[in-house]
Amino acid sequence: MSAAQAAGTAVLVALPFGRGRLFRDVQKKPLPDFAAEIDCASWAQFFLKFILGHPAVTAAIPGTTNPAHMIDDLGGARGTIPDAKMRVADGAICVGDLRLMRETPDNAAQS
Question: Over the stretch 65-108, which tens digit does the pLDDT of each residue have?
C-alpha cells in the first residue's frame, strides 16, 4: 500500500470483511476499549474505520445484501476516522491471522 500511496494511486478495498471471516474470528469478543475513541458501535464499524484510516486507502466496498448490515457499515464512515496521530500508540488486536494494530514509530514504515 505504501507503493500505491507514493505513486498517488487510488486503493480500493473490496470485501474488507473477508466474506465474513473477520466476524467469525471476533465472534463473542468485545470491541477493544479504544473503539469508543473512534465512534465504533460494532466490529463492522471498527474494521471499516481501521481500513479507511489508512492514508493510502481511497475507499472500501463492504458488499452486503442485508439492509441492516448496510446501515451499520455506514457508521464506519461517520464520526472519527483514525488519523496518523491516533494510530501512534501501543497495542494490537489480532483477529485470526490479521493483526490490527495501532501504529508505533517502529512499525509505521511497514504499513
Answer: 999 999 999 999 999 888 766 665 545 554 444 555 444 455 44
CB atoms within 10 A of CB 82: 20
According to DSSP, the residues that pair with 94 across neighbouring strands are 99
Cell digits of residue 20: 465474513
Going from the C-alpha of 87 to that of each of 27, 35, 62, 72, 107, the distances in angstroms are 24, 12, 22, 23, 11
Dihedral-angle region of residue 5 (phi above 0 means left; psi in -120 to 50 means alpha; beta otherwise): alpha
The reported pLDDT for the residue numbered 75 is: 95
Q: How far is CA 91 from CA 14, 18, 56, 111, in A?
A: 26, 23, 22, 15
Cα radius of gyration rounded to whole Å, the chain: 14
pLDDT digits (tens, 9 = 90+) for 23-68: 888 888 888 888 888 899 999 999 898 888 888 889 999 989 999 9
Encode burial over 19-36: b for 16+ CB neighbours within 10 A, e otherwise. eeebbeebeeeeebeebe
